[in-house]
Amino acid sequence: MTARSGRRPGGPLAGLLAALVLASGCVVGGVNEGAPQQPLPRSTRQPSSPQGEQTRADGTTSVAEFQEDMAVAVDKAEIYWTAQFRASGRRFQPVRRVVPYQREGEVSCAGQALPRNNAVYCSAGDFIAYDVRWSVAAFRQVGDAFLYYLLGHEYAHGIQVRLGIRAQFTIQQELQADCMAGAYIGGSIEAGHLRLEDGDLDEFREGLLAVGDDPDQPWFAEGAHGTAEQRTDHFFRGYEQGLAACNLG
Length: 249
What we know:
Blueprint: H1 11-17, E1 31-33, H2 63-87, E2 97-101, E3 108-109, E4 112-113, E5 119-122, E6 127-131, H3 132-141, H4 144-163, H5 170-190, H6 200-210, H7 228-241
Parallel strand pairs: 2-6
Antiparallel strand pairs: 1-5, 3-4, 5-6
Helix pairs in contact: 2-4, 2-5, 3-4, 4-5, 4-6, 5-7, 6-7
């Protein structure tokens, strides 16, 4: 792991929180979607050796390992965001629940059935939900590091709600969440809560390439998340520079 310097925890967050009223209600109809409704490509990268609790075992395949990594990703996200809010003099309230589902319509958000092959944040109920079959397939095909990005992106939508952030276009909200996911992962590595293994950065890039919009989709379209290049750029801005790169205010 290479340590990064120059990151001041809570700096950009402190400026925004100073004039903050916590938001409630729905963002984009109550649902922020973080992934396309299609399978991810199979990874061609060779697995590396397991190493401990954090971003552990590239190339692993069991559901038990997926569940362990998901639990660790949630725990580390809560630790990271608690520290950011504390540095700003505020108490952090974690996202209420992280809910796996298997069938379309099994979970709903503000009356809207959640689709298969996706992961979403529901502001109406303050929970993250993910299609467990799709997510396990991504875990097996792309690698465990991408799971941390996926959770980090959806958790970032919960942070946007807590900060009262509203964007004119969906793509602005989504690219900011990519940046915040990068900041969470990079900051957690810098703090020693997570560590990189060989190939993890490739997993982030491969997964981000898979979830990018079609290049022909208008950037201002409702539901636009950004092209693969845009999403990768914003994620690594946050990863390398921290929250200061994410335009939080």
